Amino acid sequence: MEILTKALDGKELSKREALHLARVNNTHDLYAMFSAAQELRERFFKNVVFTYGFIYFTTYCRNSCTFCAYRKPNDKAIRYRKSLDEILDYSKKIKESGINLIDLTMSEDPLIYERVDGWRLVEKIVKAIKEATGLPMMVSPGAICRDGIRALRRAGADWFAVYQETYNRELYHNLRLYQDFDYRVKVKLWAKSEGMLIEDGMLLGVGETEKDWVDSIFSMKSIGAHQVREMGFIPQPNTPMENIPPPPLLNEMKVVALMRLTNPDKLIPSSFDVDGIKGLQLRLMAGANVVTSLIPPRTGLVGVAQAELGVDSGIRTRDGIKPFMKQLNFRLASQKEYAKWVEEQCAKL
Ligand code: SAM
Ligand code: MD0
Ligand code: SF4
Q1: Nearest Cα residue to atom 8 of ligand 2
Q2: 61 C-alpha vs ligand 3 centroid, how far in Å?
Q3: Quick one: pLDDT at residue 308?
Q4: How far is the CA of 304 from the centre of ligand 3 (A)?
Q5: Ligand 3 centroid from CA 189, angstroms
Q6: Nearest ligand to the C-alpha of residue 231?
Q7: Which residue of 21, 143, 209, 322 sits 20 to 30 Å from the alpha carbon of 63, by its own alpha carbon?
């Protein structure tokens, strides 16, 4: 396909071209798309895959996102708040296992959000993890205030993740009830201007069209996201969207490939949190290059979309996924390699 040749030549695709690719539905062209995406990934990252550890330290939330198990009204959600000691213990386990980054994630816990300086608690945790491990860190604190963002950067956070889910405003408001669309964009731009790398993401299978995919991909690119992701929606019991089926994995693969073709040198995760080991390899084959949501076993920690999947069996670890990466001739990056990549990117900010 001519469009793929254009991408491989390092030229930017137009929205029209991207939409054409989004609508491809014959095996021959799909195969060509995934191959081109892989070629681009290899150009920038060779066969190296990065690994992220996940610490979801509080699952209490003030919000009511319609897709999420941890929404406030869900009285069946798994709720906990981990202590600083526990968090440090998990962080050390993550470091020892050779994982590249710690993603400190939280729900919008009222304990933090209903106090003007509630972010100080998160700042304290980030600082302590950084001191204990020295690993690159991502924070996923939700739509916090500018002072909080600044403090998290100073405390040692290298990455700031907040997912828009969609850049279609109407759809956004059906998903993130009563949450300001523009503010959620603004926090990402603030984080970047404070010196953090930023991650944005979109949900798949929540009523969006192919045009919405393309609009979201181009918007994430235009805010300058260093890591872009898609998450296939997983229905959660006792939530308004519990009867909506998850999207086909093929759509996830298409979107991953489209993201790679339009962001050749950026990071694109394949999350363990969506369907475990099953889709991991396929998303990597479509152009992804980071495995996220690895969780140390026997900690009581949960994922987001797949709360307990593979956690206690120990497969959700760096060692657990290694054989599956090897099968495809991928190599897991060392901590040093990843830290160098982060440092280089931060220097370009
Ligand atoms: N509470 C913070 C926030 O919402 O920004 C922290 C991030 S994390 C707990 C939330 C992300 O996980 C969402 O932005 C969404 O993309 C993803 N997610 C949540 N529920 C999901 C589900 N049921 N299926 C797939 N992805 C989901
Ligand atoms: C993941 N469950 O990596 C995590 C989460 C938050 N930064 C990441 C969505 O899939
Ligand atoms: Fe809360 Fe985040 Fe879930 Fe929304 S997605 S309900 S903000 S934890």
Answers
A1: 293
A2: 6
A3: 86
A4: 9
A5: 20
A6: 1
A7: 209
Longest dimension (CA), the chain: 55
Give Cβ neighbours of residue 38 (< 8 Å, ≥ 6 apart): 285, 286, 287
Pocket, ligand 3, Cβ cutoff 6 A? 61, 63, 65, 68, 70-71, 107-108, 142
List pLDDT tens digits, range 178-233: 999 999 999 999 999 999 999 999 999 999 999 999 999 999 999 999 999 999 99
We report the CATH number of the domain holding residue 216 as: 3.20.20.70
Of the pLDDT bands very low, low, confident and very high (cuts 50, 70, 90), residue 97 is: very high
Q: 10 Å Cβ neighbour count for 248? A: 12
Other beta carbons less than 10 A from residue 310's beta carbon: 21
> Model confidence over 285-331: pLDDT tens digits?
999 999 999 998 888 899 999 888 888 888 999 999 999 999 999 99
Residue showing tokens 């390092």 = 10
Ligand 3 atom closest to residue 71's alpha carbon, by position in its atom list: 6
CB 172 within 8 A of CB 154: no
227 touches ligand 2 (CB under 6 Å): no
> What is the extent of the structural domain holding 217?
2-347
Please count the structural domains in the chain. Answer: 1
